[in-house]
Amino acid sequence: MSPRQLRQHLLVIVVVLLGMGVVAVYSSSAMVSEATYGGSLRFLTNHLVGIACGLVLGVGCLMVPYANLRRSSRWLLLVSMLCLVLVDLFGQEVGGAKRWFRIGRWGLQPSEFAQVSLILYLADLLARKMERIQDFRRGLLPPLLATGMMAGLVLVQPDLGTTIAMGAVALLLLVVARARWQHLAAVVGIAAVVLVFIIASEDYRRRRILAFLNPWGDPLGSGYQIIQSYLSLASGGLFGVGVGGSLQKLFFLPNAHTDFIFAIIGEELGLVGTTAVISLFALFLVCGFRIAVAAHDPFSKYLACGLVGMIGLETVINMAVVTGLLPTKGLPLPLISYGGSSMVINLIACALIFQAGRHGERLDERALGR
After folding, report:
1. CA pair distance 221, 225, nearest whole angstrom
2. Among 96, 233, 266, 357, which residue's Cβ finds the most Cβ atoms within 10 Å?
3. What is the DSSP secondary structure assignment for residue 218, as one 8-state letter?
């Protein structure tokens, strides 16, 4: 399959996921929207606006000259760091965390933008240092420092889930860049110790771990959400109760239209529906990583690989949380969940994957003298 065909397939997959997300968001949010705002379309309208903004910005990214995109990576990283500092000082506090700038009825989450800017920067940095990547001080330390500073600013909000996602994507890029496995093993070991300390140092994180291990130990407290998610998935059976027929979305399952929308899909469309969603994301990963493999310049390869890895990792984490395979953590399901900032950034990421694949194809055509 040619790179152009891969991009065409990827476009179809993204459109289908967006369509499923629109239906799922409306179905899971209509009653909550009616009770909260007096109209059933509030969340759906915001969701459609987020998709529209993401598509416009994505098309804008496709129009930016590729060389300019790469040259801007350092500035984008600095802007992301500045936004993360500002949100900690002036952001809106929700549930004890400062992660959003509030602009009227819209919320902007700088950590979403920070993930893409970090991947852009690491792709450029690793492309320049690929010959020295096995040297710890000159090759491996600079990307580790950049990732550590960005992840540290996100952790302060606090947002442990996004912090872990950033570190995992950075690790993926270092593996693709062929860093020495001894160095990576040491980094992972140190990160694991730090992670255990971070979890143990906060009472609410310890409660999440205990709820993960035994949600029925506190069924009306820390275990409530995951138990309701189990009930939602179990109620769906093989073919589901039908679109709009979910009972758990009627104020039983918290965050039904955001972090736990996959459970509502399971209830309304059953095992068939959840399998279809998983299959679509699997095809997305296959097409995305094949685009990365087909790219001939290192920057395009690292950029596509990092962005596909980011979306894939968030998908796996979200589904694992909803099904009880991981402790509860607030990460949306990419391209499906309600959420303005995450939707916009995911669509920008898809556009950048297309841009990387298109640039690689142009290099091939030039090499063949077309």
Report:
1. 8
2. 266
3. S
